[in-house]
Write a structure and sequence with these properties.
By secondary structure, the protein is mainly α. It is about 70% helix and about 0% strand. The longest helix is centred in the N-terminal third of the chain and has 22 residues. The radius of gyration is 22 Å and the shape is globular. The N terminus and C terminus are likely disordered.
Length: about 250
């Protein structure tokens, strides 16, 4: 049976041919199977070609991760077109969980090989997309904390949930775990719509945070304010501090 990876190999460049060969090995045997010698043999090229084109094995793995994450990131970008930014966060969480569980080899390549200070390009793109989505929540006045902190919280929770589920024995994984974690994260990060009549949305602390983050999101629009770069930087710092203050006393003081 012809696989998607094999189909893509038709009419590719040498660089793409090597990436696809490495991707196939990763899918079949995990990261341990992706040695430069094995990749070269699968691609039908001399081993030095890999180092000439990618610099080293890490350079090759970066492009393999990009290959594996491409469709996931494209679908995630489509979620930005929806009218409800909070629902888009839910959809993004579900997409993230589904991708991680369906493609554990690619997911582990990006998030399972921890090196302090290093995030693969695919992971940086995924985080940037999440930050964009959370900025939309802020612009709608429905974020409980700064965009930066909310992005970190949701990213950490999502990765942790997937790695936990991936570690479970086959047949033991309970999808309700991810659903419960999703709703806990959404409740922690977001406010209900103002028209819902929920008292929490009108609480003084929530009002300060949502207003600060809505203003911060507006500042990201080109030509939105007539401030110098230094003034804009200071205002952003103040707004983030307001959003992440520990309690109302930190704001009022």
């Amino acid at each position: 049976m012809t696989t998607e990876t094999e189909t893509e190999q038709a009419g590719t460049t040498l660089r793409q041919k090597i990436v696809l060969a490495a991707a196939r090995l990763l899918e079949e045997g995990g990261l341990d199977a992706v040695s430069t010698r094995a990749v070269a043999a699968r691609a039908g090229v001399p081993t030095p070609s890999i180092f000439r084109i990618f610099g080293d094995k890490e350079g090759l793995l970066e492009e393999v991760a990009e290959h594996g994450f491409r469709r996931y990131l494209d679908v995630k970008a489509e979620l930005l077109t929806g009218d409800d930014p909070v629902q888009a966060l839910r959809d993004a969480w579900d997409l993230h969980i589904r991708f991680g569980l369906e493609h554990p080899a690619y997911y582990s390549l990006v998030y399972g090989q921890v090196r302090p200070g290093h995030i693969p390009q695919a992971g940086r793109r995924a985080a940037a997309g999440l930050r964009h989505m959370i900025t939309r929540v802020a612009a709608a006045g429905r974020l409980r904390m700064s965009v930066e902190r909310a992005t970190e919280v949701m990213h950490s929770a999502g990765v942790g949930t997937i790695l936990t589920l991936m570690s479970r024995p086959e047949g033991v994984c309970d999808p309700r775990t991810a659903d419960t974690a999703r709703e806990m994260v959404i409740a922690t990060l977001t406010l209900p719509p103002a028209e819902s009549g929920d008292g929490d949305a009108a609480a003084p602390r929530a009002a300060v945070v949502s207003s600060a983050m809505a203003l911060l999101a507006a500042l990201g629009q080109e030509g939105s304010v007539a401030l110098s770069p230094a003034e804009l930087s200071l205002l952003r710092e103040w707004l983030n501090r307001l959003a992440d203050a520990g309690d109302a006393g930190d704001v009022d003081g």
